[in-house]
Design a protein that fits this description.
Elements lengths: L4 H8 L15 H9 L4 H5 L4 H15 L3 H10 L1
Helix pairs in contact: 4-5
């Protein structure tokens, strides 16, 4: 959970130039807290791209051992 989202993303998707614009300090733990507190995930991530959000949510779900829908529904409720 303490892995930096930008580090993970730029390694996983090196051809996505938006990855370089992401917040370099945000962790997956921060993302969990952002969702849990119904805050803006795009502010945390640093880019307003739906594809990036989906990929990051998918990774968070994997880390947590839950389905993507669990993370997505938490975001929708916010």
């Amino acid at each position: 959970m303490n892995e930096l989202i930008k580090d993970w993303y730029t390694k996983e998707y090196p051809s996505d130039d938006l990855g370089r614009e992401m917040n370099g300090n945000a962790t997956f733990s921060d993302l969990f807290e952002t969702l849990d507190n119904y805050l803006d995930v795009f502010d945390l991530i640093g880019v307003s791209d739906t594809v990036i959000r989906e990929r990051v949510f998918d990774k968070l779900a994997d880390i947590m051992g839950v389905d993507y829908d669990y993370v997505y529904k938490q975001w929708i409720r916010g």
